[in-house]
Design goal:
317 residues; alpha/beta; 6-stranded parallel sheet; 3-stranded parallel sheet; 12 helices; 45% helix; globular; binds nicotinamide-adenine-dinucleotide
Length: 317
Amino acid sequence: MKKILITGALGQIGTALTARLRETYGTDNVIASDIQKPEHSSVVTDGIFENLDVTNQSLIEELVQKYEVDTIIHLAALLSAVAEAKPQLAWELNMGGLNNALEVARTYGLKFFTPSSIGAFGPETPKDKTPQVTLQRPTTMYGVTKVSGELLCDYYYQKFGVDTRGVRFPGLISYEALPGGGTTDYAVDIYYEALKSGAYTSFIDKGTYMDMMYMPDAVEAIVQLMEAPAEQLVHRNAFNVSAMSVCPEDFEKAIQAHLPEFNLSFEVDSVRQTIAESWPNAIDTTAAQTEWGFSPNYTLEKMTADMLEKLNVKITE
Ligand SMILES: NC(=O)c1ccc[n+]([C@@H]2O[C@H](COP(=O)([O-])OP(=O)(O)OC[C@H]3O[C@@H](n4cnc5c(N)ncnc54)[C@H](O)[C@@H]3O)[C@@H](O)[C@H]2O)c1
């Protein structure tokens, strides 16, 4: 990766990834882009930023030509809960945007990364130690676009030789940018509320296990996979990655180790609960470990200590 175009760079992943890539590859070699342009975001102020709507292929192409891009990291998408509320828009953005970005990668011979999700699995998928290759019959529009995206990226590699790579991210927890409307957002909200009010009402029910990962591990995984020698990769586009399988009470316990008065209650949102129940409890990450050395650093306890410390500073600023 020498000149990297990031789409959807103002989102939860993009905000953290843009900073990391600017640090590692140089500010002038990272072109952050998004459909929005908030003036005060570090993504906009600390380096190259361009407005880009990924549903317009020629706009992607213009930026690739202008900056002589060699890699696209495609993050623009609608997340699970929002996609369920706006399924047609989710199809247009998640599939249309991906198809446009892949076409530009094919035309200009670019390397390509896009994340899939644990949402690409479905209710019939084995829930524990979910294999790398398994039954995928998702019942949400988000899942339908994610499994289709995995297949489309495989197709572009097999048919056109585009160097496509990707992971299935679990719920991602971060302090830089707020999540964009996913089913695992409670795992970010809980830390904000623990510090602000000492209490949190979870929209996901007790005992509901899902895979999660701290953002520094997610960003590291993207860099590691993109830098891995191509001949080491067998699966390429949808590596299972995760650092922990957790339920709301696990967060409660981890937070109480720092804030003993913290109180967790439940008011379940049926839409997001149904989505959560259709996803695995704990996925198997062996392929990512063996093919490109995936090895997350953060446990729930280590992540909780870091989140509370960083958010405390952010909230009191
Ligand atoms: N955050 C997670 O927990 C998680 C988990 C699994 C997979 N993913 C995947 O990672 C990717 C990025 O997720 P995120 O959490 O950063 O999402 P996000 O919702 O936080 O950010 C998405 C960004 O895309 C931008 N966008 C929307 N429409 C656009 C358009 N037409 N053109 C250009 N930009 C547009 C938005 O302005 C936003 O900044 C998505 O593909 C998502 O499915 C995320």
